[in-house]
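Q:
My hope is that you can spare some time for a protein that puzzles me. I hope you can help me see how the letters and the tokens relate. Thank you; the sequence and its tokens follow:
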Amino acid sequence: MPQRFLVYQSLWAMERRSPDGREWTLDEKLEMIRAAGFDGAGVRFADRAYAKTVTDFLRAHGMTWQAQAYPQSVDDLKPVIEHVLEFGADHLNVQPDVRPYTVDECIPYIEGWQRLADDAGITMQIETHRNRMTTDLIFTLHLLDRFPDLRLTGDLSHYVVGREFWYPMSEADHALMHRIIDNCWGFHGRVASREQIQLQIGFPQHRHWVDIFMGWWERGFRQWRAKAPADATLTFLCELGPPEYAMTGPDGHELSDRWQEANLMKDMVRDLWGRVSAGQV
């Protein structure tokens, strides 16, 4: 079986948080994701009942999912792994909800989580994310010095804001990001600028940042194709978050339609994958 590319939608990103107070039900969210042609979803696995409901729907419709966890200790991952073993997942995505001061303090967490995942036969990835162990780009590069084979999930938006990269970006800054990208085994999709975590990807004034992220994702797809097994699957989670990730006007309403943008992002990255696979870029 050839390498596959699956585009997921974040269930967190399906929260509206609108001034009208109207939220889609879980059934509505799942049906919207299915009808729009996403391959699956990112699913929070801390709550067994929630994980069962969502994965039952996805499985029934021939879709797949990634399991998401936010452990604050090594033991916090144990029940999540039990749920993954029960319901399945293409991989376990860990947002390490700890903020050690030194790399040495990170070692017991990473080794402990990896040991639990390995013993269970589950593929684990560590997400790059602010206010987590991986909050800072340079600190995460030091983690890679200690764990050169660490599998990352690249949410690259956090480092653009965290480092306040100038535009146009320097080759030195690109090189820092390339080292992160080259350790990525999956991606979470959002476009940032040096001052905003989440830009409207359809607004023409943001095109230069969209182009930077598309270039990074192209590199990410290329490096993954070169190192992954012939039958492996790469997942890309569209993760355009609700306010305060999403910018709002004085009336509290968002400046763009995030659901429409998620569908646009899905089509953009699928097209990019197709061109990378065909050797057209």
Q: What stands out?
A: The chain is about 45% helix and 15% strand. The chain has one domain: 4-277.
